[in-house]
Write a structure and sequence with these properties.
alpha/beta; three-stranded mixed β-sheet; 2-enoyl-CoA Hydratase, Chain A, domain 1; seven-stranded mixed β-sheet; Lyase 2-enoyl-coa Hydratase, Chain  A, domain 2; 48% helix; 2 domains
Length: 274
């Protein structure tokens, strides 16, 4: 196992078997997003995006929570939701726009599979981070909640985008405006999580899925994600053109050639991610 230097104790990252496990590390605050955490998160994701030795990313939280979203206690004590009274409103908006694109936006577009492993609550922006991943695994006692209405916020970090596409506009409105707690079982029924497991099994279940993905056709996964993301907002011709470009490209990869030969040989393919 290799520990990656993230520049902060609030984010931990270990790499093993081509799997990067990113841990939000503020357990005393249910891993709420601090200014220090957000100052480094974009760099962490950028590094993993370009690291050829990483073929799958797990995002999880230390202790009993996944991520409580913004640090409301810190906001209350400072009297400023942007984290610094020295910024004008326009400066605060610009800064957060940049932070969102380099954190949750980069996670959503990550050219390799991503998994959110939820040991506990994912609230507000924390829920958005979970929803930005390709897969979610929840401990049976974990919950999700949009939370914003309860603290007088409209919501940020792409939560409305992800939730609307996952559950539909009507249900997303309900979950945002009423801000009810979503149990793990309810999340499974809504399609918000891929698996539910016992708390003590969470990390093993996440690693099992991550190993499967890390040993898969990495180039094909990358282009699958691009195709699927384009399908959200592109028209049919855009999607068709992108699909055929990526399909022919992946047909030239070593992984495709290996898979085709393995099919003939009646054996499992061994993918190398190229």
């Amino acid at each position: 196992m290799t520990a990656m230097d993230t520049g902060t104790d609030t984010i931990l990252c270990d790499i093993e078997d081509q799997i990067a496990t990113v841990t939000l590390n503020r357990p005393e605050a249910r891993n709420a997003m601090s200014r220090e955490m957000m100052n480094h998160m974009g760099d962490v994701f950028s590094s993993l995006e370009m690291n050829r030795d990483v073929r799958c990313v797990i995002l999880t939280g230390a202790g009993k929570g996944f991520c409580a979203g913004g640090d409301v206690k810190a906001m209350a004590s400072s009297g400023d939701n942007a984290g610094s009274a020295s910024f004008t409103v326009d400066e605060s908006i610009h800064r957060q726009r940049d932070e969102q694109r380099t954190s949750v936006g980069k996670l959503f577009k990550m050219p390799k599979p991503t998994i959110a492993a939820l040991p506990g609550a994912a609230a507000g922006a924390g829920m958005a981070f979970a929803l930005s991943c390709d897969f979610r695994i929840m401990a049976s006692n974990a919950i999700m909640t949009t939370a914003f209405a309860k603290v007088g916020f409209s919501g940020d970090y792409g939560g409305t985008y992800f939730l609307t596409h996952l559950v539909g506009a009507a249900k997303a409105r309900e979950l945002y405006m009423l801000s009810e707690r979503i149990t793990a079982q309810e999340a499974l029924e809504l399609g918000l999580t891929t698996y539910v497991c016992e708390p003590e099994e969470l990390q093993d279940k996440a690693r099992e899925l991550a190993l499967r993905l890390a040993n898969g056709p990495t180039v094909a996964y990358r282009y699958m994600k691009e195709n699927l993301n384009r399908a959200i907002s592109g028209d049919i011709d855009d999607c068709l053109d992108l699909e055929v470009t990526h399909h022919i490209h992946t047909g030239k990869t070593e992984d495709h050639k290996e898979a085709a030969q393995a099919f003939v040989d009646k054996r499992d393919p061994v993918f190398k991610g190229r």
